[in-house]
Amino acid sequence: MHKNIPIDHPRYISLTIREKLVNGFKAGIVVPQGLMAHGRGEAFDYLLGENTTPSALYAEKAACCLLLISKHPVISVNGNTAALCSREIVELSKLLGASLEVNLFHQSQRRSHLIAETLIENGATQVFGLYSATRTMINGISSNRRFVDTFGMAKADTVFLALEDGDRCQALRSQGKNVISVDLNPLSRTAQASSITIVDNLIRAVPNMVNLTNQLRAEKVSELIKIVSEFDNETNLKYSTEVIRNGIQKRY
Amino acid sequence: MHKNIPIDHPRYISLTIREKLVNGFKAGIVVPQGLMAHGRGEAFDYLLGENTTPSALYAEKAACCLLLISKHPVISVNGNTAALCSREIVELSKLLGASLEVNLFHQSQRRSHLIAETLIENGATQVFGLYSATRTMINGISSNRRFVDTFGMAKADTVFLALEDGDRCQALRSQGKNVISVDLNPLSRTAQASSITIVDNLIRAVPNMVNLTNQLRAEKVSELIKIVSEFDNETNLKYSTEVIRNGIQKRY
Q1: Which of A98, A102, A244, B148: disulfide with A129, CB 3.0–4.6 Å?
Q2: Beta bridge pairs of residue A182
Q3: Nearest 10 degrees: CA dihedral of B110, B115, B116, B122?
Q4: CB A182 within 8 Å of CB A200
Q5: A252·B187 Cβ contact <8 A
Q6: Helix (H, G, I), strand (E, B) or coil at B101
Q7: Pick from B32, B79, B67: nearest CA to B180
Q8: d(Cα A127, Cα A129) in Å, to the nearest integer?
Q9: pTM for the structure as a whole
Q10: CA distance B221 to chain A (A)
């Protein structure tokens, strides 16, 4: 229980999740802009009913299948992701045999290293994206996010963007990579440009994906391919927007 | 132009507004939780089309009329309000003859005084809510927001909550006070409990209210009363939720 948040506050759960980010902020891994981005996601989560919808769970399943059949899956981690679910994201990377790479919109060497340390404290054995000597530039992005690790995201066939601002998804797609994103706004550029968009709170999505991967890794590759090929991102996104629209109606 | 935000970024305007809050944060007047609350509002603003809707403008007009006919109007100011529009809020308070009172969810003497200083730098001559000697408690709130100034909000007939978390509106209403709130979420408890809810970005609402007050203060009191009595908050809020619902459909 937080000393400043009364337990009878109707938004208690949401406020305590915010505290995780505030702690991440105090530890130097979250930037002020990341706190605002979280608030934005929180609003969409509120409209979605703060639950994993059936379409989100379906996207999570398809995402796990795609990651399992990929040759070089890479999970891109930013400050908010590290603050919210380092343990779970490391667990997922191990189950999937996926690399972890730090990639920040608001770049800083110190923060990249603090995020990497957090991941390592939570069991990661290798973290990419830390050294300028192994940096490659991707076209079509003017922010610091254009830099990727030569041995990480640059050679990835599938990139899992745990949380993103939206400027990088299209550039990665145009390089022929599969992109899986977690974005609570189904209307965002990231959501629209991704191969698979998970419209869910990262706090729910990653544990779901750990469970799903544990189930799915016993499946035949042909079955995993079938699930991925049947998944239609546009149709699935439409369902999320419907949930929001109906949610607004119901609440009113 | 901000060094970290490329000018071609599609969310450039929104990102530069965020910088105002980040600066307020660095100055000690905004708390991390305030940054997240801003992000939440930003998401609703995005769904509203980032424009003042006709219903928001109508609520702003009714609000100005109500404030003009009130005996003791008080404007409640928090950290985000001070960071976003100190100059405009002071201007509005002068036009209306309204008191300014600092009231914080995440209480701190130092921050209250920093906010008061910002208001004074922007032309305010008196700021309430700073001293414990003149503190009164209102019932029905368990957070620090239960404390109001004996000579400010405690004796107010109308309170303008420039930005709120929602825990205080109902308590002020049950004390028989009129409450005007600015809240981009038309479904929030604050929005639902207010006498007049302005579903608009504060950055647009306050300058609009300055202009409206300049026009309306030449009107007869009977005309102002007529406008207030004709205003129906529930109907007006429904219109805002419709704008959001239709906006989601249109964007998709």
Answers
A1: A102
A2: A198
A3: 150
A4: yes
A5: yes
A6: strand
A7: B67
A8: 7
A9: 0.87
A10: 34
Any idea what the Cα angle at residue A59 is, between residues A196 and A15, rounded to 5°? Answer: 105
DSSP run (H or E) holding A180: strand A178-182
Residues in chain B: 252
Contacts of residue A2, Cβ cutoff 8 Å, sequence gap at least 6: A15, A16, A19
pLDDT reading at B1 higher than 50: no
Q: How far apart are CA B153 and CA B73, in angstroms?
A: 8
Question: φ and ψ at B150, to 5 degrees?
Answer: -55, -35
Q: Let me know: does B237 contact B220? Beta carbons within 8 Å.
A: no
CATH of domain B54-251: 3.40.50.12640
List the one residue out of B139, B2, B24 whose CA is nearest residue B77. Answer: B24
Residues 6+ apart with CB under 8 A from A239: A53, A54, A55
Q: Please give the single-letter amino acid code of residue A48.
A: L
Task: Average the pLDDT over B222-242 and give the result.
Answer: 96
Give the whole-angstrom CA distance, residue A175 versus residue B162: 47
Is B42 within 8 Å of A38 when comparing Cβ atoms?
A: no
Does B247 have pLDDT greater than 50? yes
Closest in A40, A106, A186 to B43, CB measured: A40
Contact A37 B39 (CB under 8 A): yes
In this predicted model, what pLDDT tens digit does every residue of A45-100 receive, in sequence order?
Answer: 989 988 999 999 999 999 999 999 999 999 999 999 999 999 999 999 999 999 99
Minimal Cα–Cα distance from A33 to chain B, Å? 7
Distance from CA of A94 to the nearest CA of B (A): 31
> Taking Cα atoms as reference points, which of A104, A95, A44 lies closest to residue A77?
A104
DSSP-derived 3-state class of residue A51:
coil
Say yes or no for a CB contact (<8 Å) between B43 and A38: no
**Three-state SS for B196?**
strand
**Token reading at A1:** 């229980």
Q: Which tens digits make up the pLDDT trace of B102-141?
A: 988 777 889 999 999 999 999 999 999 888 878 888 777 7
Q: How far apart are CA B45 and CA A184, in angstroms?
A: 15
Residue found under tokens 């400043």:
A4
pLDDT in tens, B10-24: 667 777 788 889 999
